Amino acid sequence: MTLLWTPRAWIGSRWRDNVALRIDANGRWSEIAPGLPSPPPGAQMLRGPLLPGLVNAHSHSFQRAFAGLAERRESDADDFWSWRDRMYRVALRITPGQLRAVAAHLFVELLRGGYTHVCEFHYLQHDPDGKAYPDPLALSWAVADAAEDAGIGLTMLPVLYERAGFRQPTLREDQRRFRTSPQSIWAARHSLATGGRALMNTGIAIHSLRAAAPESIAMLRKLAEGFDGPIHIHVAEQTAEVEDCLAATGARPIEWLARERLLDERWQLVHATHTVPQEIAAVAACRAGVVLCPSTEGNLGDGLCDLPGWLDTDVPITLGSDSHVTREWREELRWLDYGQRLVRRQRNVAAAPKKGESSTAQNLFARVLDGGPAAGERSWGLVPGARADALVVDMQGASLIGLPAPQLMDALVFSSPGRPWRDVLVGGQWMVQDHRHAAAERIARRFEAAMQEIWRGT
Q1: Which fold has domain 2-52+388-440?
Q2: pLDDT tens for residues 414-437?
């Protein structure tokens, strides 16, 4: 049992003072007691306020090898679809060993960015020729090994991916590494779940409605009867996707999912950028969640979600860094509100003074904190029973020195740059201490070598 004491901690949806926190032998919070003016005997005194770590609910870790390398335009236009064609070149090159190196470096970055758990939307399955590896899960285990190397929590989500579009019954040649079926996805999830990884959960995913036939989605749903883990899907990310779905099915993507009675509290709708109010209401009625990825959506020119519409409901909201052009949640929250400010020409759009929360940062953080369902965790945050994950704020950071205490969350999100997390706790173990990750240098060297191999000759 480990006992911690901090002068301030984020409990529920507000700061509490003088908090003692006890961690049990399984790496979970067993007791949280605010209002203790001095540390209990034997308590470890933390050197700053304590925040829960966040779940990064949408990751394609191999795309970290592509971050920053698609920011040139050599034709008349550039959009999501042209970016995707270039991204496939990485997908066709990367080996299991290279993927482990890239993902481990990414996961260290995510820890330093305030994430303590990541959901891997894993559709890279086969060798570069599209054939199964001797171990069909070689690339999945590479990601799992990388998470262990870095010390981050992980939810593996093998992805159903079987066609190139609504009217294209097979995959394109450059999608050959992605091919799966409902049966193979369900078998992969079972094998991963029984792999004995301490910080790993499992779920399933469907790439998108355009990439999976209705009958295959129905089969996967049947296989998952009785399964209480997460089910993720890309949905309504692009206007072209919405238009194609309307033409093929007579319904918008989220409308189709609701019409087919697929949605329930297990489902996590990734992006959900292009929605109408009726779809938001349908998601709320089904108790499904949404995963917003503002930095990737901005980088790809996807568009802006109806953030006020989602905030006006009790739909669970989580964040994802997706293509990993950004690896910290502060910037994701910042751009959630900045995007709305630009299009509406207003400030502090996400604040909720009528509900008693005038701080944009506090309201957004409170809404994205409960990422447990997206990650397959029953509870999340500084609450008994949740995994003991936390961030210690470095109050000597350049953007936080001299800050009035009530404005701490405001400055964390909206004042940058900085290194705000002095220490990072995952499952009761310190993975970062005094800004240092013990394996970071070794992992960075492996990442550098992998990048040189991937991009040699290009």
Answers
A1: Urease, subunit C; domain 1 (2.30.40)
A2: 998 889 999 999 999 999 999 999
Which positions ≥6 away from 128 have C-beta within 8 Å? Answer: 92, 93, 177
Residue 458 has pLDDT above 80, yes or no: no
Residue 71: predicted pLDDT? 96
pLDDT at 302 over 80: yes
Catalytic residue, from 271, 274, 324, 437: name it.
271
Parallel, antiparallel or unpaired: strands 14-23 and 29-33? antiparallel
Which is the CATH superfamily of the domain at 54-375? Answer: Metal-dependent hydrolases (3.20.20.140)
What backbone phi and psi angles, to 5 degrees, belong to 107?
Answer: -65, -35
Pairing status of strand 2-11 against strand 14-23: antiparallel
* Fold agreement (2-52+388-440, 54-375): no
* The residue to which tokens 């959009």 are assigned: 79
Tokens of 35: 């209002």
Give me 183's structure tokens. 């049966």
Q: Is 79 a catalytic site residue?
A: no
Helices (H), 35-79: none
Q: Of the listed 322, 337, 389, 423, which one is catalytic?
A: 322
Mean pLDDT confidence for 55-75: 96
| Res 209: pLDDT | 98
- Distance from chain centroid for Cα 67: 16
Q: Where are the domains of the chain?
A: 2-52+388-440, 54-375
322 in active site: yes
How many CA atoms does the CB half-sphere of 310 hold within 13 Å?
28
d(CA 237, CA 208): 10
- For the whole model, what pTM was predicted? 0.98
Residue 398 to residue 195: CA distance in whole angstroms: 43
Q: Which of 434, 433, 421 is nearest to 50 (CA)?
A: 421
